[in-house]
């Protein structure tokens, strides 16, 4: 029992199981990871890898408490390059689930051990294989009290997905696939670090907006990626920091990155950035936090200095200084009680906007009807996470921010015409079962849209070019193509609707007032105030309606 309780401290939810299994597979030098779970990992969670595997003797030891093959002497702790080193993860998982470990080193037969609470370990032999597959079933089935602290399967699944993406970002050379409840959700091939950043971070990240830099000094190597200003967020959640492949919650490093962007972004805006630091293992201690999410750096101030300076240099090289911050900075965040926005001047897209938005606003056909904005409106604020409120004449407009942005992007994409962007590296994909047949017949029909495909044999295709308007959103195009089973008639509309939906601001994305006004102005100029899926973009409450509701005489 003591063991079970101790286990709970390390393994508190499926996310922790996944983290440990991924770390072990990566420590074993895997180049491919197949991950799957059911019911958010509560029912089953499995990680397969093609790493060096375990011999029968290792298999008999690995799940015992405090067994690790990664440290032999005290000094090893100083030189540590592996993700795990305490030798307690498998033991802890075994104490609170049914754990099956199948592993082989490629030489001779493989072995399998099944560990279940209260039963002796069961060993079996198997055919020769190299790699390891670990399955964790019925997590906390023997600890009902602990199960009560878990969230819904969907919420636990989201947490697992976060850990997967954290590791995927740090190991771009490793291929990751994920199946959840039988559906394939993730397919990251082995990629360059920059490609992986784009794949994992998703929109608004785009190759066109990507800024990358490196910096080296004794004991430290830094690699940074960021979205070029003015792309930004209104919080620090877009900043991710890693040291020696481990994601860190390190306020000082996040702060250093944000500090470097000062002058390039308006006040209250923070960058989208990923920083990977490789620090001499002798100069950093990860053994201060159970999940290794914090580290103590021996030369912290030098490290911060290097982060700020190298980031600044990268930004300077881009000449991206933020031009006229007054429009965004002058308005207080949230509600604004200013005068009606009479024919406002175009404002810089600061806030959650991104390269995609930037593309759309410079490309959009809506520009032509700019003077129509003279009918004026007053922006009142963002409410309920989804809606922008605006007063216009005697009416109150409640505008769905996602639907509005989606519509504007959709129009911009369609207006860009057939110009294409060749992909430096074709993106290989395999359509899902139902779509495979349709694609085999119709793959050439995508070409007139600028989506150039080439069969790559064995049911796979290479995406070779995309319409310029959606450059940087290749993964979304692939997602669409590999799932589309509909006839080709409405292809353009469907494709762009799908891409706009993925690229648009989401519910809950906070918008700064300048950006919100800009979005509203464009929205009010639309001829068809419906999103590409046909939903209305806004709803209107008239003064009369409101009067009636509170029992006033109209
Ligand atoms: P640690 O990772 O701290 O060493 P764990 O309990 O996570 O401790 O794992 C115990 C041991 O089991 C590891 O040291 C390693 O030898 C072995 N092991 C676990 N997972 C794998 C894997 N996927 N491939 C090869 N060996 C593994
Ligand atoms: Mg481990």
How would you sum up this structure in a few lines?
By secondary structure, this protein is α+β, with helices and mostly antiparallel strands. The protein has helices at residues 2-10, 14-27, 56-61, 76-79, 89-94, 144-147, 153-170, 193-201, 251-260, 300-318, 326-330, 355-363, 401-415, 433-442, 474-481, 491-503, 513-524, 543-549, and strands at residues 32-38, 44-49, 98-105, 110-115, 122-126, 130-137, 175-180, 183-188, 210-217, 220-227, 239-243, 246-247, 273-279, 284-285, 296-297, 378-383, 387-392, 395-400, 420-429, 452-457, 460-467, 538-542.
What labels would you give this structure?
binds adenosine-5'-diphosphate; alpha+beta; disordered N terminus; 8-stranded mixed β-sheet; 32% helix; binds magnesium ion; 22 strands; 554 residues; globular; 5-stranded mixed β-sheet; 18 helices
Secondary structure topology:
Blueprint: H1 2-10, H2 14-27, E1 32-38, E2 44-49, H3 56-61, H4 76-79, H5 89-94, E3 98-105, E4 110-115, E5 122-126, E6 130-137, H6 144-147, H7 153-170, E7 175-180, E8 183-188, H8 193-201, E9 210-217, E10 220-227, E11 239-243, E12 246-247, H9 251-260, E13 273-279, E14 284-285, E15 296-297, H10 300-318, H11 326-330, H12 355-363, E16 378-383, E17 387-392, E18 395-400, H13 401-415, E19 420-429, H14 433-442, E20 452-457, E21 460-467, H15 474-481, H16 491-503, H17 513-524, E22 538-542, H18 543-549
Parallel strand pairs: 1-7, 11-13
Antiparallel strand pairs: 1-2, 2-6, 3-4, 3-6, 4-5, 7-8, 9-10, 10-13, 11-12, 14-15, 16-17, 17-18, 18-22, 19-21, 20-21
Adenosine-5'-diphosphate binds next to α2 and α5.
